[in-house]
Fold these 2 entries.
Entry 1:
Amino acid sequence: MLTFGRTNIIFGLALALSIVLYFFYSFPFWIFGLLLFLYSLILFYGCYYIRSGFFMPVICSLPGKNKQIVLSFDDGPHPETTGRILDILEKHKAKAVFFCIGKKVKDNPYLFKEMVNRGHLVGNHSFSHDAYFDFWSWKRMMADLKQMNDVSENTIGSKLRLFRPPYGVMNPNLKKAILRGGFVPIGWSMRSFDTRAKDKDKFLKKLNQSIAPGRIFLFHDSMEITGVVLDDFLKEVKNRGYAVVALDKALPLQPYA
Ligand SMILES: [Zn+2]
């Protein structure tokens, strides 16, 4: 598997070879430009494709071929949309995992408590979800994740261990913050794109077509359309003989500290 460490070794050797070719065999200078371009391309893939496991292993699906899926919801809690989603999940007796943003938990602590009271898991999705989070130092990232965990501890009495990177972006600094903070990174294998979906029917059709063994679905409980289609989606999940499982029941995980 392509990892950050292996990529650095391969490109280190390629750079040494290019230097030899440039100085001793008069290869053109653009060979260095080509190397830089390829290196940037691979790094970009590692940062933005969470399933690559490029910087560190990230849980993105369940092992095996059992007809079970996991539902995950990011970016809440939201005072207008999260309640409806909680009610639909309860109707279907489905347990999900909510990756919440600390500042929103601070504004809506009752919804965060409600998630836990109704048997769902809650995870850390940073305190700020800052637009420049991915460019921060690992210390600043860690402080932000800790701030979210402090809010969680004040609200439900537990610190969170499950973590989903803001914007799903991984990088070496975030890896360091995750390891130092003792977090378990959780990705997804099916991105619903509910943040962009406009047409309810098309959206539901796409979701229904995506049901497959072991998939972890990424939704946003902050999006209205998610609550609009969730009931029909869960009916289809059941009709197809699938079960919605809690992440800590399907995998040996310790979600809280
Ligand atoms: Zn997010």
Entry 2:
Amino acid sequence: MSTPLVSVADARRPLHAGVDVGGTTIKIGIVDDLGRTLGATKIPTADETGVPDAVRRIAAALRSLADERRIDSGDVVSVGLGTPGTMDIPAGLILEPPNLPGWRHFPIRDALAEACERPVTYANDAGAAAYGEFWVGAGREHRSICLFTLGTGVGGGVIVDDVSIDGAHSHGAEFGHVVIDTTAEARRCSCGKPGHLEAYASATALVSIVRERLAAGEPSSLAGIAADSLTALDVAKGAEAGDALALRLIDDLAVRLGLGVATVTHVIDPEAVILGGAMNFGGAAHPLGQRFLARVTAEFRRLTFPVQAARTALLFAALGGDAGYIGAAGLARLNHRNQAS
Ligand SMILES: [Zn+2]
């Protein structure tokens, strides 16, 4: 875990737990009232053993974490839970997440509340990550943010004045499915529809596009890697080493993403747009990450109104893989405070 820990003695109470369910790993953390992590752990998602088993394991891992860090479990007043969609947030139901075929139509929020004996706040995983960045991450100076998560897919989250915009059907902020290509040749998204951003700007899309160019005979150092084992990280390493094809395709991805960012900005008009997820090309500290962000920003500015081009901040996320559990805990904290007042 990358986030520095706050000691139990220094923590501001009450405390909140955050749970971030991913395709392979469930991250669990306990944070204080200022969003600082007291302790974090992870357990396998083990999709095949089903949700009831996962709920039991999450509750057990939370108890162990509190014991290990010598946290009085009475100080932990609420739990936040983020899962991949599809979902029904008001009803607390996980519906049909594509990456979790064993998790179908289950009242996960109430089951976890019973297992943890705490109220549970339920959120989309990208919405939780957005709240984490808004609360204590790259967006902490801003009152409204849009977060794009770039990984296997493209996720999104919108936070405006402490509110996560989930939409009427828990499908708000689905940035990955914004249409950016209406031509007959548009690439097909993982959801089955044509021309969606995710089909151009996810790690999966980058790898597919590189494979197609290699199969078409374009010269590249990546041709030395077996096509079925090629990853987005390989493409990034190739680009760092000066591979022209890798650089060009990452630039193309940045331009497509810039179009998606401009579209979302014209809907929400946030103070800041934040790029998160595992595919950040090294982030702000790395020349390739700087080049990527500059390309996204240039395309964004080319397409947006002048005031937005001049004033909207485009930033890399700051919390890395911890954003989801920190943000889930933050949303639980909000509910706790709203109920207390
Ligand atoms: Zn789609």
